[in-house]
Design brief:
CATH superfamily: Metal-dependent hydrolases
Catalytic activity: adenosine + H2O + H(+) = inosine + NH4(+); 2'-deoxyadenosine + H2O + H(+) = 2'-deoxyinosine + NH4(+)
Strand order of the largest sheet: 1-2-3-4-5-6-7-8
Keywords: Hydrolase, Metal-binding, Nucleotide metabolism, Zinc
CATH architecture: Alpha-Beta Barrel
Shape: globular
Radius of gyration: 18 Å
Bound molecules: 2'-deoxyinosine, zinc ion
Pfam family, one: A_deaminase
EC number: 3.5.4.4
Number of domains: 1
Binding site for Zn(2+): 12, 14, 196, 277
């Protein structure tokens, strides 16, 4: 298979984890933000170390990108460049997520932050054969008082570049109990819902995210393995798992790539998708993720076509866009 040429879909990609290192350097110089001593050191600070111990250490790599992403121009540019990078490797549809509340440090309003991200995406959609949507993330460890503000700020963009609500950040057992009020509010406003769960070993969080938070998709979800209730509900309800295999190895969600359950899940009728999570932090691309999954687990073109179709079906896109994306299946 020519993995670069294959049509691809990425449903789980963080904006702040997917910034080009050279853009960070450029913007940091412009804004007088202190940088590590040379380009290699910048790349090192943005990319997860080989011996990363857990998700919390992984999340430390977001500090520098977030420092530069505090102006309209920076957010618009980074959004455009992410869609451009994906388009150039034949990603036909990309859902990008980020937490608007992490971009208010220099006084931007939530509206300006969201508008800038959407504007960069629209500019790339005009230039390249790619379509996209944004997902508004909130962080589990942050104070809850701004969550509804984020949901309200994204509402005018629903169907115009924003589609869904997500809960991200470090994962603790039982976190879902704190969030039904917020996912319910998001659903009432017209958002779709996806939740990061079952990434740091807590399969029960996946069950809770589906039953308590009405999550339609789950970010990662790897740890349904070992939790019968979680496994069964994901299978029965055909909840799509947004798996991000390279990231899962780095955060120690799994031990090594060949231990990833994606192929086993697929064989058993679970809806699996292949995604990047963070192109820069995880030092990956969709081409790399699809190649590694297909080669490690001996997946055929037909297997990949099925996974591609799962991604189309579970995308938070309009029917028109889904139909357009289905048109690429024959290129697989
Ligand atoms: O894989 C992840 N799990 C949980 N949280 C994550 C992951 N990747 C990124 N994040 C967090 C850090 C970012 O600052 C935030 C919004 O994109 O989402
Ligand atoms: Zn993620």
């Amino acid at each position: 298979m020519d993995f670069l040429a294959l049509p691809k879909i990425d449903l789980h990609c963080h904006l702040d984890g997917s910034v080009r290192p050279d853009t960070i350097i450029d913007l940091a110089k412009q804004y007088n933000i202190e940088l590590p001593e040379d380009r290699d050191a910048v790349v090192q600070s943005l990319t997860v170390p080989e011996d990363c111990k857990n998700l919390d250490e992984y999340l430390a790599c977001f500090s520098l990108p977030l420092q530069v992403m505090q102006t309209e121009e920076a957010i618009e540019r980074i959004s455009f460049e992410l869609y451009e990078d994906a388009a150039l490797e034949n990603v036909k549809y990309l859902e990008v997520r980020f937490a608007p509340i992490l971009h208010v440090n220099k006084g931007l309003s939530l509206d300006t932050i969201i508008a800038s991200a959407v504007k960069g995406m629209k500019r790339a959609e005009e230039k390249y054969d790619i379509k996209g949507n944004y997902i508004m993330s909130v962080l589990r460890m942050f104070p809850k008082d701004s969550i509804k503000d984020v949901i309200d700020a994204g509402k005018p963009y629903l169907g115009k570049g924003v589609v869904a609500f997500d809960i991200a950040g470090g994962e603790k057992p039982g976190f879902c109990a704190e969030f039904p009020e917020y996912t319910q509010y998001a659903i009432e406003q017209g958002y779709r819902v996806t939740v990061h769960a079952g990434e740091q070993w807590h399969g029960q969080n996946v069950y809770d995210a589906v039953t308590m938070l009405d999550a339609e998709r789950i970010g990662h979800g790897v740890h349904i393995q070992g939790n019968e209730d979680a496994y069964n509900i994901v299978k029965e309800k055909q909840v799509a798992l947004e798996t991000c295999p390279t990231s899962n190895v780095q955060t120690k969600c799994i031990h090594q790539f060949s231990d990833h359950p994606i192929a086993e899940f697929k064989k058993d009728g679970i809806v699996v998708t292949i995604n990047t999570d963070n192109r820069t932090v995880s030092n990956t691309t969709m081409t790399n993720e699809v190649k590694r999954v297909c080669e490690t687990f001996g997946l055929t073109k037909e297997d990949y076509a099925e996974i591609y179709k799962y991604s189309v079906e579970s995308a938070f896109a309009s029917d028109e866009v889904k139909q357009h994306l289905m048109g690429f299946v024959e290129q697989i």
